[in-house]
Amino acid sequence: MRSLGWKRLSPIPPQAKATRGCIFFSGCGNAIFVAIARLRVKDVDHIPIQELFKSRSGAMLLLAMAVLVAPLVEETVFRGYLYPLFASKFSASPKAGADPIRAVRFGTFAGIIITGILFGLMHGAQLGWTWGLVSLLTSRRSYSYLRPCLDGTVLASFLLHLGYNSMIAFTSVIATKGLRTCLRPLSRFVFCVHVR
User: Fold this and answer.
1) 90 CB-near residues (< 8 Å, 6+ apart)
2) Contact criterion met (CB below 8 Å) for 61 and 85
């Protein structure tokens, strides 16, 4: 697990606990921003993922997976494995130049761009290949910047991702009175649940 960016954290001082909380709530704020931004995307009324919202059990399973499984798995794969892989490969590239600082910056930038594109494309089928939505996901590649933020672990990007998905799930449950009412009016907001 250490090689994938998960390692034992050192005892945390109070300010680090506050930082981790801020990162989680930043993910919540990001969910609101994305929900507002995606309102400008056209052709999002019939996205394949919305089929799961036609039943309460399907919606509950999707929300549980989005909060309990997706952040852990996606951050481990994209930020723990793929990002360092691409960053190191492109840092050693001849295009990075001989200057070590420039090479690291080039590798970091390339790693962020490539993992962001792969992350967006991975969710393309779920979104009916609506390119506005796929590009919105791709733009979330900034999570990669948070990877080294807390003790060199993927914890920061995991917390941001967890906050994002938790906010979507929480608002979905509240707005539908515990998933008892129709999810259709929320579909423009709720669909984001599965992709985080």
Assistant:
1) 96, 106, 107, 110, 111
2) no
